[in-house]
Amino acid sequence: MSVRTGVVAKALIIVAVAATMYGIIRSKREMVDFNVYRIAGARAMHAEPLYRADDGHYQFKYLPAFALAAIPLSWVPSEVAKAIWFAISVWLFFILFRRSVHHLPDRRLSARALYWCSGLLMGKFIVRELVHGQTNVLLGVIAIMALVAVQQRRYLEGGALAGVAIFVKPYALVLLPWLAVAAGAAGLGAWSAVLAIGLVLPALIYGWRGNLDELYGWYRTVTDTTAPNLLVPENVSLATMWAKWLEPGPDAAMLAVISAAALLVVPLVAVLWRRRVDAPEYLEFGLLMVMIPLLSPQGWDYVLLLAVPAVVCLVDRLRDTPAAWRVLTAAALITMGFTIFDLIGRTLYTAAMRISIISVCAIVMMIGLAELRRRAVA
Predict the structure, then answer these.
(1) Are the C-beta atoms of 221 and 60 separated by less than 8 Å?
(2) How is residue 247 annotated by DSSP?
(3) 297-323: string of b/e by CB count within 10 Å (b at 16+)?
(4) CA-CA distance, 334 to 328, in Å (whole number)?
(5) Residue 123 burial by CB count (10 A; 0-12/13-18/19+): exposed, middle or buried?
(6) How many domains in the chain?
(7) How do residues 66-78 score in pLDDT, each as one tens digit?
(8) How many other β-carbons are positioned within 10 Å of the β-carbon of residue 59?
(9) pLDDT in tens, 280-326
(10) What is the percent of the chain with per-residue pLDDT over 70, rounded to a whole number?
(11) Is residue 25 part of a domain?
């Protein structure tokens, strides 16, 4: 089989799998989050308020600039828009995995092995992302493009991309400290310029005062909807973890803040040890991607798909760690990837979610990445 024929065959397989998945997902009438984007786009087009309490659970929780970007989604029928977004999402997953594998410095395993291993471990998060019609994969691709730009010393581009990522998902703000270290003043300058433009841009439609009202509406919506989602089984944030272990209240909230502060020490230590390796950016980036759903009060489990670079790094370097670390890391990755309702059953799944097992696995992943840096192997 020629190279060109092989590429075509792989493309046809991907299309067939994607079409099958789409048929299954649409038969369940899912992609409910995608409807939020379409509605927000339609409202932005007519300068209508974006943030409405009567939208219930499906309130728009993104910055106003995202609604402007979503305007084209409202120009086509709903089913057509969903099919287009599904196809784009599958393509974005391909990019995310490809860049995660090919830009891992000093790779030990073959690209094929890393694709298979990381794909299986992240499979449930991929499916949930597609089922909901979410935009985390878009964030992941923009963020990893920023990483690649920084790796290649294109700091202005990296900073600009990190700024764009905030308008896809505001929790991309977690990249800012890393950007300051890895891209310096150039990266920070580009990031600041993009952020300023994005915050002001909706004023073209809403006017200056109207834009300020929408920004306040965003802040109010995000803060008001945090508490009701705290005990949702699939929430993997630190705030949820402590609320499940204790009960919602001041003690759980205080411990969530303390544990978040303690967790921030992990990437800080990795940065302090960055001179131990020749290409430190990848591991530091992966650490922050794992942290996002842990720090976000509304960190749903499928947001962990952002951890693809971290999973690729851990799998690739697994043999570089002692047996105890190897077992612990492998157990965390497997538990995180295969704690699936349809696989382990209702009783075991409910118990696992009640003790926040996915959150614990993500924390173990972060510690495993820090251990790789301590050993100067990533």
Answers:
(1) yes
(2) -
(3) bbbbbbbbbbbbbbbbbbbbbbeebee
(4) 10
(5) middle
(6) 1
(7) 999 999 988 989 8
(8) 18
(9) 999 999 999 999 999 987 788 999 999 999 999 999 999 999 999 99
(10) 91
(11) no
CA–CA gap between residue 163 and residue 165 (Å, rounded): 5
| Domain membership flag for residue 182 | yes
pLDDT at 266: 94
62, amino acid identity: Y
> Residue 11: which H helix or E strand, with range?
helix 3-27
Q: Which amino acid is at 258?
A: I
Contact (CB, 8 A) for 356 and 337: no
Q: What angle do CA 177, 183, 187 make, to 5 degrees?
A: 90
20 domain-assigned = no
For the chain, list residues with pLDDT below 50. Answer: 1, 3, 8, 12, 16, 26-27
Q: Name the nearest CA neighbour of 146 among 133, 134, 162.
A: 162
Q: Which two tokens stand for residue 158?
A: 């990296």
Three-class SS string for 197-241?
A: HHHHCCHHHHHHHHHHHHHHHHHHHHHHCCHHHCCCCCECCHHHH
In a domain, 299, yes or no: yes
Give Dmax over CA atoms of the chain in angstroms. Answer: 64
Total Cβ atoms within 10 A of residue 195: 21
Strand, helix or coil for residue 322? coil
Place of tokens 């798909």: 305
> Quick one: tokens of 372?
């790789």
CA dist 183 and 161 (Å) reads 12
Q: How many CA atoms lie within 13 A of 341 on its CB side?
A: 7
Long-range contact pairs involving 87-90 (C-beta distance under 8 Å, separation at least 24):
87/18, 87/22, 89/129, 89/130, 89/133, 89/137, 89/138, 90/14, 90/18, 90/21, 90/130
Specify the pTM. 0.91
Full domain range(s) for residue 267: 31-374
